[in-house]
Design goal:
Layout lengths: L1 E3 L7 H18 L7 H24 L12 H28 L12 H23 L9 H25 L5 H32 L5 E3 L6
Antiparallel strand pairs: 1-2
Helix pairs in contact: 1-2, 1-6, 2-3, 3-4, 4-5, 5-6
């Protein structure tokens, strides 16, 4: 008779990866014929919480096992910020819209929220990617994938911003071009988390089955 030992620690990546994929797919559903306000809010909440749960699992693992940053404080804090800050900003924005109405002008007191969000998000993501690279928990070359993904998102976003401002300033603000640029940026924000989530799932499933320990009769 044999009893299985504890499952591999990094199997938690399968769940974290699935949640990360869900966080990207659920917001996409908002743009596919979902008109009911309650349903849109529900889908949005599920997407935000899926992302937060994914970052929490990557940071702490499950029962202290499976952290992609080996439990290092800097990496855990960075992933925790990625988990909590977007959710907090999303909730604050919703409450502000309910209290003061949707933002309609550039001089609205909430206009700086977007800038703060981008700075904090990029900083935390860069720190988390660096810690994953250095921790040595994720096998090579997979430990570099988060950094590559961040470069894609930030690079596409920066190019979109620069080109859009240049077109508008130069009086050549063709609407089709602007819409195409922003769609490319949105595509990057969708593809990168899906790719990272699928990578985590693949790594979790690739691990070998746990060995068995003989209980009875006693091993010789």
């Amino acid at each position: 008779m044999s009893a299985p030992t504890e499952p591999p620690a990094l199997n938690v990546w399968v769940w974290a990866g699935a949640l990360l994929v869900a966080s990207a797919v659920l917001p996409l559903a908002l743009g596919v014929g979902v008109d009911a306000p309650v349903l849109r809010s529900t889908v949005g909440i599920l997407g935000q919480f899926s992302f937060a749960a994914s970052m929490a699992l990557f940071a702490w693992g499950w029962r202290g096992r499976g952290s992609v940053v080996a439990g290092r404080r800097t990496g855990v804090v960075a992933l925790a910020v990625l988990a909590v800050f977007p959710l907090a900003m999303w909730l604050a924005s919703g409450l502000a819209d309910l209290a003061f109405g949707p933002q309609t002008t550039a001089d609205d007191g909430r206009s700086w929220w977007g800038t703060v969000y981008q700075v904090v998000w990029i900083g935390a993501a860069a720190l988390a990617a660096a810690e994953i690279w250095r921790a040595g928990v994720v096998p090579r070359p997979w430990n570099r994938v988060p950094a590559w993904g961040l470069l894609v998102v930030v690079g596409v976003g920066a190019i979109t911003q620069v080109v859009s401002v240049s077109l508008v300033t130069g009086g050549a603000g063709d609407q089709l071009t602007l819409i195409t640029l922003w769609q490319l940026s949105s595509l990057a924000m969708f593809v990168v988390p899906v790719a990272l989530g699928v990578s985590a799932i693949v790594l979790g499933l690739r691990r070998t089955p746990p060995p068995t320990v003989q209980v009875f009769p006693p091993a010789a």
